[in-house]
Amino acid sequence: MMIPFGLKRLQVWSLAAGCSIAAVVAFVPFSAAQAQQRTLPDFTDLVEQVGPSVVNIRTLEKVAPRGGPDGGGQDEMFEFFRRFGLPMPNVPRQQPSPHPKRPQQQEEEQPRGVGSGFVLSADGLIMTNAHVIEGADEVFVTLTDKREFKAKIMGSDKRSDIALVKIEASGLPAVKVGDVSRLKVGEWVMAIGSPFGLDNTVTAGIVSAKQRDTGDYLPFIQTDVAINPGNSGGPLINMRGEVVGVNSQIYSRSGGSMGISFAIPMDEAVRVSEQLRATGRVSRGRIGVQIDQVTKEVAESIGLGKPQGALVRSVESGSPAEKAGVEAGDIITRFDGKVVDKSSDLPRMVGSTKPGTRSSLTVFRRGGSKELVVTIAEIDADKPVKKPAEKEEKAKGSNAGQALGLSVSELTETSKKELKIKGGVKVDAATEAAARAGLREGDVIIQIGNFEVTSVREFEAALAKLDKNKAVNVLFRRGEWAQYAVIRSGR
After folding, report:
1. Which of 345, 347, 352, 349 minimizes the C-alpha distance to 307?
2. Same fold, 285-378 and 397-487
């Protein structure tokens, strides 16, 4: 279970850490103590260097009182903090109302969460996670010298989970931003934050992986640093004392650390923060396609070779992609000359492109590559996916595909308009090999064996050209979605 971990929900947790390091040196005798001294890193200097730049962030939210005149709702909140050994919030207890029959229903400020952050600039700019401050009416920042400031939210971006807040202070110790491209798997890293409200807690581990796909726009840094609820927004620091990531998510079945944590790469975080600081929002590009990964089986059957690129399952009507000539079933292999290795690469490439930019697309279509030019638009709210077109009366049919388990008929003009396609054949029945490949009644075949199909006659002509002893790739539409199937005749 992937969870962000601003301190909002707590469960019972346990913490165990282990480390085994072996040093092999040929022909040079060492004592065990000498080997350990040479191998294990010392984080004390890093803590002294970076620790003053890390802050604690707590948020408040205004809510209507839930308890009666005796303040029962507030007592529940204080019991929550007592149960988990957290510092009591600086909120005065309410006194019973002098008029029990007419209690005052004023809004109360209740603690909403606890997280971490770090100083980006000496004039009080603080970076944290968007989920730490989400829904907060007030944000308070506490420095390591115990000074507390009420912060102003400069901007927040849910897609990257980055937020900026500003406090009225000067001469603050700002962090040094590291070069993420120099970060290596296996490298020691350290985190400082407020897990479970315990300020300035230091934990350490190694980089487990880079470019880990867990989101649409960010390739995360994976580490085994002990990260828990409350560490959200805190820095991930390399051995040079530079911040290389923002701790954001953990994989956990218990709500606590299980040795798998994820940090937002600092280069991505800085890019987002620059837009938040300038305009309070992040502008991202879009082209209007729904995509999926390309499987090895599909890649081999259509002649692509290896599984790479992003399979276009649908093209939004009136979108930049439609205007550029992108079709459902295309595989986008390059964007602006850069290779699209996997489908998750494309949203990042397009998202980081400034709206209004003219960019090149290389698509693989029916056995060959095609160059297109698309004008990037600005991302907006997702549009709801339409339901598949309802069944229609059957038109002229064909049984030419019986060897593959297919029975098809002509597509009506109404269906063509609803699906926004120029043609295809409707599957009336899918049995045996076709059914095993995933085809079913109501699907619309628009390509078979790399041959475009717009009518029953073209479907029959394409079948006549196929090698009956080889697997057949079929591109079909199911509602607004396009996908491939590979039919293997049973023998």
Report:
1. 345
2. yes
pTM for this one? 0.63
Q: Where are the domains of the chain?
A: 1-9+26-87+108-282, 285-378, 397-487
**Domain 397-487 sits in which CATH superfamily?**
PDZ domain (2.30.42.10)
Set 53, 156, 160, 232: catalytic member: 232
- For the question of residue 292 being annotated catalytic, the response is no
Domain spanning 1-9+26-87+108-282: which CATH class is it, in words? mainly beta
285-378: which CATH topology? Answer: Pdz3 Domain (2.30.42)
Q: Indicate which residue of 53, 156, 161, 359 is catalytic.
A: 161
Joined tokens for residue 288: 């209007």
360-388 pLDDT per residue, tens: 999 999 889 999 999 999 986 434 334 33
Residue 77: pLDDT band by 50, 70, 90 thresholds? low
What local confidence, expressed as pLDDT, does residue 16 receive? 31
232 is catalytic: yes
Q: Which of 53, 116, 131, 443 is catalytic?
A: 131
The Cα 406–Cα 439 span in angstroms is 9
